[in-house]
Design a protein that fits this description.
CATH superfamily of the largest domain: Hotdog Thioesterase
Distance between the termini: 45 Å
CATH architecture of the largest domain: Roll
Mean pLDDT: 95
CATH class of the largest domain: Alpha Beta
Strand content: 25-35%
Shape: globular
Largest sheet: 10 strands, antiparallel
Number of helices: 7
Number of domains: 2
Number of strands: 10
């Protein structure tokens, strides 16, 4: 579907409401896909299960996809720029979640526009920022600049390892874009092989942040990150962390190239 509607006119667009169902198997599959260990029984064993808050992002993935289907941007060139998640209540082990989606701000970057897609439910608020080349220049506000990076040496650092089959596994949670599995599709975006999903990488980082700081990953209350250089399944990256569990700043860097920048996270009880 194509449209001649200026990017700025999409601001406030209602993207609909959906009720999404899931069960314990879906939540466990997600946990494994973002690096949960078999020994972390309350993430992978249904009798003790606590659902990872970032699982919510798989339930709401239809919303930015819907905006693309409506013709707001070219889905073959648009990029997932950043992601925010605010947790308002723990997700149940299984059940149904009603999600309402809309377009938030639309920022004019000149040659591109950035569309914010906001999804609200009783359990969370999630915001996708989609960078869409060729849709800017409509006379809108450029929006906020990049936040300043953390100052000083990290409080803690760790190496995060991904696995060769991680993107293939994460696809089963709902995002089946071909660039994450098909070498030919990856080559069309100038990648030597399939790349990790940005949301998978962010989920991996959130789990590792909890391990590093002594928090429980299911106690995540807020998460924010901007996506940079791609990471490929099987590669490792350095996780650098500042602050404490109530206000963590972090970044993920692979071979000197930032994979996640401007990261913020908080854990509560």
């Amino acid at each position: 579907m194509t449209t001649t509607k200026p990017a700025g006119d999409w601001r406030g667009e209602d993207l609909g409401t959906r009720t999404v169902s899931y069960d314990e198997r879906d939540a466990i599959l997600y946990a494994l896909a973002v690096g949960a260990r078999a020994t972390e029984l309350d993430l992978v064993f249904e009798d003790r299960l606590r659902v990872l808050p970032t699982f919510a992002l798989t339930l709401a993935q239809w919303a930015p996809d819907e905006l693309g289907v409506r013709g707001a941007f070219d889905t073959t060139t648009a990029l997932h720029g950043s992601q925010q998640l605010t947790v308002t209540a723990p997700l149940p082990r299984s059940g149904e979640v009603t999600l309402a989606a809309s377009v938030g701000e639309v920022w004019d970057k000149g040659s591109a526009a950035v569309f914010e897609v906001v999804v609200r439910s009783d359990y969370f608020v999630a915001t996708w920022s989609i960078f869409a080349p060729g849709t800017g220049g409509f006379g809108g506000d450029r929006g906020p600049g990049r936040p300043a990076g953390p100052q000083g040496d990290p409080a803690v650092e760790a190496v995060v390892h991904t696995t060769e089959n991680q993107a293939a596994l994460y696809r089963l949670t709902g995002d089946r874009h071909h660039i994450h599995i098909d070498p030919e599709a990856a080559a069309r975006i100038n990648q030597p092989r399939p790349i990790m999903h940005g949301l998978c990488t962010l989920g991996v980082a959130a789990v590792e942040l909890a391990r590093l700081t002594g928090a429980h990953p299911a106690d995540l209350t807020a998460l924010d990150g901007r996506f940079g250089a791609a990471i490929h399944p099987g590669e490792s990256a350095d996780l650098r962390v500042w602050g404490d569990t109530t206000d963590l700043a972090f970044e993920l860097v692979k071979d000197g190239d930032p994979t996640i920048t401007g990261g913020r996270a908080a854990f509560g009880r």
